[in-house]
From TrEMBL:
It comes from Thermanaerothrix daxensis. It comes from the Bacteria. The lineage of its organism: Bacteria, Bacillati, Chloroflexota, Anaerolineae, Anaerolineales. One of its GO terms (biological process) is base-excision repair. PANTHER family: APURINIC-APYRIMIDINIC ENDONUCLEASE, ENDONUCLEASE IV ENDODEOXYRIBONUCLEASE IV. This is Xylose isomerase-like TIM barrel domain-containing protein. Gene3D superfamilies: Divalent-metal-dependent TIM barrel enzymes (3.20.20.150).
Length: 282
């Protein structure tokens, strides 16, 4: 057994039109030999409880682990006028994701709006705490995962997501390693030693056992000194996947690795094959 499940963020490009949708995506992931799917609800949460039940049933039938990528338009640092809309998007993604059988809800934390992390994190954590309390009261048992982001203007440094996760129950990071590489903007954050330091920092903040339930996004990435420009096919980028995988293996990590490259399932399968070639026994 390999320690990581591999899959895609969003439906595989090869998903047939029938049954299609998220249900078809679950079955297609299974037919490809992958084992995880992140439902790409990135524009809005437009799903009925009936459809959620069908998604959940398909995932149970196939053994596929589900997560949700919540709408992009969430900002924990939004103005007081805009915050209720952002809040509802996150709540809806978590509520309907839970109905669909998802265990983890990934979201973009938002923008600093020119302020420092120290100036905004109090508000961010208070609002996130409020969301978690509502979800707990409604019996929604999911892990909210603020994602590490690829631009320094965005909330989502490693330190940001670790602070949120340390201070708010039911919150753990989504580690997008391509974003961490791009956020640096200078080609760094792309070596075995650097990734080992990230994992050590993670374990110090959240405990050694947290390394057993990592939720990872991965792709190639184009960037400038200001950070991320766009995602690339993994083999068309400078990202050192083998160095990352070696660090994850040597640190004894486990969880999910979900591909976000333009070549979704092709690159997800390549990542899985690369892991198996590096570590034949898992």
């Amino acid at each position: 057994m390999r320690p990581f499940r591999f899959g895609t963020v969003g439906s595989p490009l090869s998903t047939p039109k029938k049954p299609g949708g998220s249900v078809g995506a679950v079955y297609q992931i299974a037919s490809l030999g992958l084992s995880a799917l992140e439902l790409g609800w990135v524009q809005a949460v437009r799903v009925t409880p009936e459809t959620c039940a069908q998604i959940s049933a398909a995932a149970k039938e196939t053994g596929i682990a589900l997560s949700v990528h919540a709408p992009y338009f969430i900002n924990l640092n939004a103005s007081d006028e805009e915050w209720p809309k952002s809040r509802q998007r996150l709540i809806d993604a978590a509520f309907y994701g839970f109905l669909a059988g998802a265990t983890d809800i990934v979201f973009h934390p938002g923008s600093y709006f020119g302020e420092s992390a120290a100036q905004v994190m109090g508000k961010v954590i208070s609002r996130l705490q409020g969301c978690v309390e509502e979800l707990q009261a409604r019996g929604v048992r999911v892990t909210l995962r603020p994602e590490t982001m690829g631009k320094s203007a965005m909330i989502g440094s490693l330190e940001d997501v670790l602070q949120m996760s340390h201070e708010v129950p039911q919150v753990q990071p989504c580690l997008d390693f391509a974003h961490l590489h791009a956020r640096a903007g200078d080609g760094s954050m792309n070596s075995y030693d650097e990734w080992m330091r990230v994992l050590e920092t993670y374990a110090r903040a959240l405990g050694e056992e947290s390394l057993q339930r990592l939720h990872i996004h991965l792709s190639g990435i184009e960037y400038s000194t200001k950070g991320e420009r766009n995602h690339l096919p993994i083999q068309e980028s400078d990202f050192d996947v083998k160095a990352l995988f070696s660090a994850l293996h040597d640190r004894g990590c486990a969880g999910r690795i979900l591909c976000e490259s333009p070549n979704l399932e092709t690159d997800a399968l390549w990542m899985q094959e690369t892991w198996d070639a590096l570590f034949p026994m898992g």
